[in-house]
Structures are given as C-alpha cells and as structure tokens.
Amino acid sequence: MTIGILISCVFITLKTYLGGLTAVIWTDAIQGTVQTIGIIALGVCVYFLTGGWENVSVNVNSLGMTDFLSPTNAGVAEILIPFLTIGAATLVRQDTWQRVWAAKNIKVSVMSNWLACFFVLLTGVVIIFIGVFAKAGLNIVTDKPELIYYDVIFGSIPFWFGAIMFIVLIATILSCADSFFIAGSTTIVSDVIKPLMKRWNIWLQSN
C-alpha cells in the first residue's frame, strides 16, 4: 500500500509539473468523461441486475422499509448539509477559479460551468439510485459504508465489468489528485515562496 501511494505520488507530481494547468485541464476532461459514462453504465447495470423497480419495491415492502424509495423521506437537514458544505466549497475552490480564468472567453466559461453543474447533478442522482438499488435489490450488507463501491463492483456484477468500473474509480482519483496538486502548488508559490523571494531580494539590495 505504501509503495503504491509513493509511486502514484511521484507519477502525479511529474505529470502535473511537466504539463502544468493545460495538461491537468485536458486530462480532467478525459477522466471526467470516463467517470460520467462509467457511473451511468453502472447505474443501468445495477437496475437490470436487481430486476427493475417492481422487484426492488417488493423487496422493500417485504423488509418493512416502505419509505426507502421515497425521495421526500429525507429530512431537510440531510438535504441542505451537502449543499451548504460541498456545494458552497465548490464555489470557492481554487481549481474551479483557475479554469474560469483559463477559459477562452466569458461565454465558454459560463457554458462550461453550467454543463459541469448539470453533469454533477446527473451523476449525483445516479449514485443515489445505485446505492438504493444495491441495498434494496442486491441485498448488499456491509459494516464499512465507505467501501461500498468495492462491494458493488466486485461482489454483484460480472468481473470484467467490475474491472472497468475500477478503472473509472482510478480516473476519478487521478482527476482529483492533479487538480489538488496544482491548486496547492499555486497557493504555496503565491503565499510562501514569492514573499520569501521578495524579502530575500530586499535583503540582498540592502547589503
């Protein structure tokens, strides 16, 4: 595990350093497309594996979870907390603003961000759909909810398709990692290195 993390760190660092923001944006576009198509494909696969909505409804009723399939069953707080945390954070994320400034013009920036909002909403809905159907239709039980994705792709679907979904997961991780790397490096250069260099130059001039 440690060796794998170190190799990944070196690889992502070199890719981000050599390619810069342009490479990060292009690879994010490719990896984001892989992620979106993969999640939708997984949603379709899970739907057919569970036998469809009617079969899931029967399972839910037999388990006594009649409100499990109702979108209005969630409390207001459970809906607002993700919007006020993840949603608000997206508005001020440095990598988001970097892409705004790197856009060809204002029209491209506005259109691309609206498209991003649409696909984020779409994938979010599909992910919830997969989770509901996996629990109510595939009867997946786990004591580690943070690892439920692996239970779905390696425990319920054909292995070859699970391997593809694992690649989708890697694409998501790489897409996030290089964006965080370049955002973090920009902050370090702007807030730490440049002020130090300025002070160093002042000290050299005074001596």
Core attributes:
207 residues, mainly alpha, 7 helices, 83% helix, elongated
How would you describe what is shown here?
This protein has 207 residues and is mostly helical. It is built from seven helices and no strands. The chain has helices spanning 2-49, 52-62, 76-92, 94-102, 106-136, 148-155, 159-206. Helix 1 (2-49) packs across helix 7. The N and C termini lie far apart (50 Å).
Quick summary:
This protein is an all-alpha fold and 207 residues long. The chain has helices spanning 2-49, 52-62, 76-92, 94-102, 106-136, 148-155, 159-206. α4 crosses α5 (106-136).
Write the element-wise H/E pattern from the N-terminal end onward: HHHHHHH
**Category from helices, strands and their pairing:** mainly alpha
Shape verdict: elongated
What integer is the average pLDDT? 82
What share of residues are in beta strands? under 5%
Major sheet description: none
Low-pLDDT runs of 5+ residues are: none
Radius of gyration: 22 Å
How far apart the termini lie comes to 50 Å
Helix content: over 70%
Please count the beta strands (DSSP E, at least 2 residues each): 0
How many H/I helices? 7
